[in-house]
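2024-03-11 09:14:02 INFO worker-7 job=invfold-0412 stage=load source=structure_tokens
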């Protein structure tokens, strides 16, 4: 299918919907300048000190590292926390908000990303499911209780030559033990899921009200297919946006990055550029 025809098909799937499900993976953040961790090579480009140590993403995204080398673990997550706080979401987020503004039930976001970029871009906190948790929230490493709290008080200082935290290690306010991000990691038996479970419950209530959903999936990979499964489970065609492995069984594929694809969709839907600018500000 020609790109022009694919965009028109995607616009037609969106046009008459009464609610928008945005299903987003890591590729959504690339146009904002966030690193792409696909493959060990991509991860090591973003973190050269870890390349020298021979540590891959799954080695760092692991609760055991907080036990064996907490300053290295918090060097990695502290750098990411500071990076996400400093990152401005790209204009594609504003386009999604503009699309949803036309619909009776607005939008809900389902994302495997832990970066908080949707909330930063103006999506409502109570209309987002973060299925793998959030780097902007913490829990006890033990954990000593079920508490999850905001990471607002953590100001990480990281020596990026070694990827090590040099500021005080964040502590659990209840027991004083090391705290960690409330993120589902590899081999993680200590993750506290209550916050994400509450998000799922809100999504279920929203979904029962939406009779004609549109689903736009962006930058979702196949290695951990949580986002793709959610998108495909809605019983409607999926608009799949991905520069790689974009084929979709039911729906339309736009084999490109999130921002350029959303810009084409906005044009096809006749969305005013001033509205996009306002929603992206």
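2024-03-11 09:14:09 INFO worker-7 stage=emit residues=281
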């Amino acid at each position: 299918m020609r790109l022009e025809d694919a965009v028109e098909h995607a616009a037609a799937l969106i046009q008459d919907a009464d609610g928008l499900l945005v299903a987003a993976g890591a590729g959504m953040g690339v146009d904002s300048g966030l690193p792409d961790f696909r493959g060990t090579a991509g991860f090591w480009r973003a973190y050269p000190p870890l390349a020298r140590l021979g540590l891959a993403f799954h080695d760092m995204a692991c609760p055991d590292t907080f036990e064996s080398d907490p300053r290295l673990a918090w060097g990695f997550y502290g750098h990411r926390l500071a990076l996400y706080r400093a990152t401005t979401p790209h204009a594609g987020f504003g386009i999604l908000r503009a699309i949803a503004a036309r619909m009776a039930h607005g939008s809900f976001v389902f994302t495997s990303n832990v970066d908080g970029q949707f909330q930063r871009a103006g999506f409502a906190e109570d209309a987002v499911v973060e299925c793998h948790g959030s780097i902007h929230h913490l829990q006890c490493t033990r954990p000593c209780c079920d508490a999850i709290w905001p990471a607002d008080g953590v100001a990480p200082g990281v020596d990026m030559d070694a990827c090590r935290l040099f500021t005080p290690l964040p502590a659990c306010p209840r027991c004083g033990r090391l705290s960690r991000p409330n993120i589902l990691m590899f081999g993680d038996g200590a993750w506290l899921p209550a916050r994400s479970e509450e998000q799922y419950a809100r999504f279920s209530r929203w979904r029962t009200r939406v009779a004609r959903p549109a689903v736009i999936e962006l930058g979702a990979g196949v290695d951990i297919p949580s986002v793709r499964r959610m998108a495909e489970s809605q019983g409607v065609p999926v608009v799949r946006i991905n520069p790689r492995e974009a084929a979709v069984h039911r729906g339309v594929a736009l084999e490109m990055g999130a921002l350029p694809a959303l810009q084409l969709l906005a044009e096809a839907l006749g969305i005013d550029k001033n509205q996009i600018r306002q929603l992206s500000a």
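2024-03-11 09:14:09 INFO worker-7 stage=report msg="The first helix runs from residue 3 to 15."
2024-03-11 09:14:10 INFO worker-7 job finished
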